[in-house]
Design goal:
151 residues; alpha+beta; five-stranded antiparallel sheet; 5 strands; Beta-Lactamase
């Protein structure tokens, strides 16, 4: 039997969407986004922090100072936002900072900041593209209602 045709503009009732299974929580989505990014070639690790520097999730080797990196991400992110406002531009999406030892990639989102640590020989273009896509996913995840669990 054919599926009933739903008039345009009407939403599917919750009882019908629940049969498809629960959506992952925002927290789970955040962890998945970060996990995918740290698996890129040349990326040593990464973390996601709130605007005030609290760690949301991290995927870092044991020797990396999580709290110091969280503070760095929040400080850099906030300075980039303030600078963009002063220049009359929209909010920043991504930035990178490079040195002889490696590269720090930073992405801004409604949740906070996403930071990736790259090796000296990391492919800048591919990581920046992946970071932009990750930030876009964060924007989408933040806009959509989370599952009934805690975000």
């Amino acid at each position: 039997m054919a599926e009933p045709v739903r008039p345009t503009g009407l939403q599917t009732p919750r009882s019908e969407t629940a049969a498809a299974g629960p959506r992952p929580s925002r927290a789970q989505e955040f962890r998945e986004i970060l996990f995918e990014l740290v698996r890129l070639d040349g990326v040593r690790g990464g973390l996601m922090v709130t605007p005030d520097g609290l760690v949301i999730t991290s995927e870092l080797p044991p020797r990396f100072p999580v709290e110091a990196l969280a503070a760095l991400a929040a400080t850099l992110g906030r300075q980039l936002e303030v600078g963009a406002e002063r220049l009359g531009r929209g909010g920043f999406r991504t930035a990178l900072f490079s040195s002889d030892d490696g590269t720090v990639f930073l992405g801004g989102s409604p949740v906070g900041y996403l930071i990736l640590l790259g090796d000296r020989n990391v492919n800048l273009a591919s990581v920046r593209l992946a970071l932009r896509k990750g930030v876009d996913r964060l924007h989408g995840t933040w806009k959509t209602p989370a599952a009934a669990g805690v975000a």
